[in-house]
RHH-type transcriptional regulator, rel operon repressor / antitoxin RelB
Amino acid sequence: MTIELEPALEEALERYVTASGVTRERAVANALHEFLDDREDYERAAAAVAKGGQTFTLVQVREQLGLDD
């Protein structure tokens, strides 16, 4: 697979791989994997809300988990 990146994105990728020591291919694959996982989470959440599923604010979740201490 070949992709063309905008110059600013190409430069950011180069800085990242230089600093982290991973290959360009691994960095792009990791980013794509994370994006697809996030997208799947979003789609599941949107489907739950569409079915009338209960939602919680971040404050409510933190309180329920005792994270405000």
Remarks:
- The radius of gyration is 18 Å.
